[in-house]
Amino acid sequence: EELLNNTSAFIEKIEKLEAQLKLEDEKFLDKCSQFDQVKSQLDSLKIDYNTKQSDFALQVQEYLTSIESLKKQLEIIETTKSTEIKNGKDKIQELESNLDQFQEEVKLLRLTQANLETENNNIKSILENRTSEVNQLKERINQLDELLSASEKSKSELQEQHDQCYQ
């Protein structure tokens, strides 16, 4: 009977252990299911991560390409800017040279104008002198005409007197 009791107790223990083992199996299966879910989420996150990393790498490459393009544009702008500055300086020098030449020409024109004005004044003075001389000559001619008329009148009177004397 003791053996039976022991066997019975042993069977009860085995049944309890089997129940516990069953519970532990269910817990283990539940944990495995949770693990599979976490693993599935992790795989999904890895795929998302890899996709995002790939997208990020593409964006970084696009940014690098854009930066290189902008650098080239900046170099072109800097080159153009320095060329434009050089051309502007050359143009300024050319304009300054032209201005100097123009100022010299203006000086020469002013001197020429002053010389022409002096010459014009001299010509006016000569013309006034000639006009005065012409007027004096006209007056002298008039005086000579009057003298000639008077002389002819006198001659005519003398001729008459002479003719009367011989008559």
What can you tell me about this protein's structure?
This protein is mainly alpha-helical. The protein has 1 helix and no strands. It has one helix at residues 2-165. The longest helix is centred in the middle third of the chain and has 164 residues, at 2-165. The protein is rod-shaped, with a radius of gyration of 68 Å. The protein starts with a helix and ends with a helix.
Fraction of helical residues: over 70%
What is the string of SSEs from the N terminus onward? H
Q: What overall form do the CA principal axes indicate?
A: rod-shaped
- Average pLDDT, rounded to a whole number, is 92
Attribute tags:
1 helix, 98% helix
Topology:
Elements: H1 2-165
Quick structural overview:
Helix content is 98%, strand content 0%.
